[in-house]
Amino acid sequence: MKTLEHLFERNRAWANAVKKHEPEFFTRLSKQQAPEYLWIGCSDSRVPANEIVNLPPGEVFVHRNIANVVVHTDLNCLSVIHFAVEMLRVKHIIVCGHYGCGGIRAALDEQDHGLIDNWLRHIKDVSRFNAERLADLGDQQKTDALCELNVIEQVTNVCNTTIVKHAWRRGAELSVHGWIYGIKDGILKGLVEGVSGSGELEPRLLRALDGV
Ligand code: CO
To answer: Is 210 in the active site?
Structure first.
């Protein structure tokens, strides 16, 4: 049987290092999680949520999929948002895209990628909604712009979920943010300033679109 013994070894070394730094760390975490942030990001191995913002386990609730898409009827993503907002009462939802996203690139080429093309339709929709804005750009610029536009679109989708709308209606302190991460330099950039209520969505989106 093939084993991944090296990963178990790395795990033990990591757990020991954490305990050395904070002996009660795992005992404390085992009682409850109380993260303030929900992270919706890309599955890309180069964009690990906690590491980028330098936060330890327990601080970030995470949902990742290819190209950080929030589909209106995706029960998986909606359940994560619901749990984060209603049970954990997170204060911030961060949609984080990244430059050089393979999902975004694949959505822009005309090749057949098989099954995933169905998922990438959502990105193609974003490209279609913004066709004029993207029309005169070169390949690289177009990919970068679509990475940004996709974040803005997904922030819109998060804000339009019944979950977030209901939370705002009951007066919850909840903001939705749009960020993008640079794989080349490890730096995060804000694209959509925190939206804290339905009325704030449109002005924030217009300002974000001005920056693309
Ligand atoms: Co990606």
So the answer is: no
What tokens appear for 152 in the block?
């803005």
Main-chain phi, psi angles of 62, to 5 degrees: -130, 135
- Residue identified by tokens 């990591």 is 14
Query: Distance between the two ends of the chain, CA-based, in angstroms?
Result: 51
Residue 178 and residue 115: Cα distance in Å, rounded? 28
Cβ–Cβ under 8 Å, residues 169 and 162: no
21 counts as catalytic: no
Catalytic residue among 10, 12, 28, 46: 46
Neighbouring residues of 103: CB distance < 8 A, sequence distance ≥ 6: 42, 66, 67, 116, 119, 120, 123
Taking the model in full, what pTM does it have?
0.96
Catalytic residue, from 77, 92, 96, 98: name it. Answer: 98
Q: Is 159 a catalytic residue?
A: no
Task: State how far the alpha carbon of 171 is from the alpha carbons of 22, 105, 165, 174, 196, in Å.
Answer: 36, 39, 10, 9, 10
Q: For 67, left (φ over 0), alpha (ψ -120 to 50), or beta? A: left
pLDDT tens-digit map of 62-102 = 999 999 999 999 999 999 999 999 999 999 999 999 999 99
